[in-house]
Structures are given as structure tokens and as C-alpha cells.
Amino acid sequence: MNHQSLLDIPLVVAALRPAHPLIITRACCARGKPLLSHMVRLYQYPLLEPRATVRNDLQKLAETARTSSVPVVLFPKGTRTRNGELGPWPEGGLRAILPVRRWMVHLLVSDGFWTSVRLTDFLSRVSAIDGRIVAKGPFEGPPPGSDPEPFIAEIRGRMDAALAELRSGAFAR
Predict the structure, then answer these.
(1) ∠ CA 59-93-89 to the nearest 5 degrees?
(2) 106, part of any domain
(3) pLDDT tens for residues 46-84?
(4) Model pTM greater than 0.85?
């Protein structure tokens, strides 16, 4: 799922009901973030630095994903842009988890929620949020041990196309 606002986590959890997913979370969210830090500890979300290149961290993430009995959620674009566009993808997490087992990948794309990036934005403008979300897939991930790069490029292209469709009004409200 692309990452636009504070509402992304409740949206993705609702989309995956009844399972409660493991959400790969930025390490900086483990402390000092109301509600989010509590969820990180309570559900034991795997933590990752956005620019993680430390092989050990990525190996731990891969092992967690490989053995997880619940869906794993990854926001490949882990930071938000000010206008809801997709930014550059930190792909380390995808490169770590895709090769460890066969995945069925569900792509969720949202738009319009970027106007409520911060809690204060949400509280002051909740009635004005005009958000939409679309689910694409499932897509069969690459075979275990194979090169994930073509699949990552395909999913990025599908996400770009779905966001453009949402913005063009191609999906009914």
C-alpha cells in the first residue's frame, strides 16, 4: 500500500480482516508516537530503519516474514509526500521478504488521505477528507530464491497506474 496518512494502518487492517497483520514499521515509530508505539509493542511489529542496509536487520525481517502465520504488510514507500504522489521506493524490505517464500501479494492503493497527514490535520479536517482506496490482485509473487526485481518493478507500475486511475475518477465513488 502507498503511505499517505494516519488512516493507512486502520484501512489496511480493515482490508485484511479477520487476520491481524504484521506491519513492517519504521524503527522511529517504536517510541513516542501515541497509539502507534503501543501497537508496535502490542503486536510485535517488525522494526526496520528506512535506509536499512545492515544485512543482519534485513535477514531478521526476512525470517520473520518467512515464518509469519498472518499477512505481512509493507508500505514500500515508507514516507509520505505532501501531495499524495508516490515517491522513491526504499526497496530493501521487499528485496528481503519476497525471495523467502511464495507470496500472494495484495496491492492496496489509496488517494485523498494525504490531506490528513498529522493528527492535528485529521482532527481539524476529518469531515473534509475525500479518500478512496482500491484493492488490486492478488498477484503471485516470484518463486522463492528468484530475483525479485522484475516483480518489484511490475508492482510499482501497477501502483502508479492505480493511483492515476483513482485520481482520474475511473473508479466509482
Answers:
(1) 155
(2) yes
(3) 887 766 556 777 888 899 999 999 898 887 655 556 777
(4) no
